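Progress against Task 2.4 (sequence-to-structure conversion) is shown through the following example record, which the project officer requested during the mid-term review.
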Amino acid sequence: MGTPTIQVRVLAVAGRRVWVAVSGTLCGATLRVLHYSLCARATDERTHFYLDLNAVEWGETLSLVEIPRLLPSGQRLRFHIVGAPESFSAPFRADGRCRLHADVASAWAAWTSQP
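Structure tokens generated for the chain above:
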């Protein structure tokens, strides 16, 4: 078994929105990397994150307790979570800043409807 890695790519930026695609394995160590990557992008100008997790492999050791630590703190921040498996969705649903999207099409519809 190799070292888990995660890759974070910004695919689009428009106004306050940023679309971030993530690939690799999400586990305790890479969750911190992703968290810090999102924190670095959270500015006054960038407050709405579309977090595309479709290409993420969810590590077997990752627990639901760890998921809330993924997102940066801040009431002004909003997160559109795309492609999170149902088994890991509960912590996102409990966070009032999050909106879940089952697929890219519904997230894209939300993206294009914002000014």
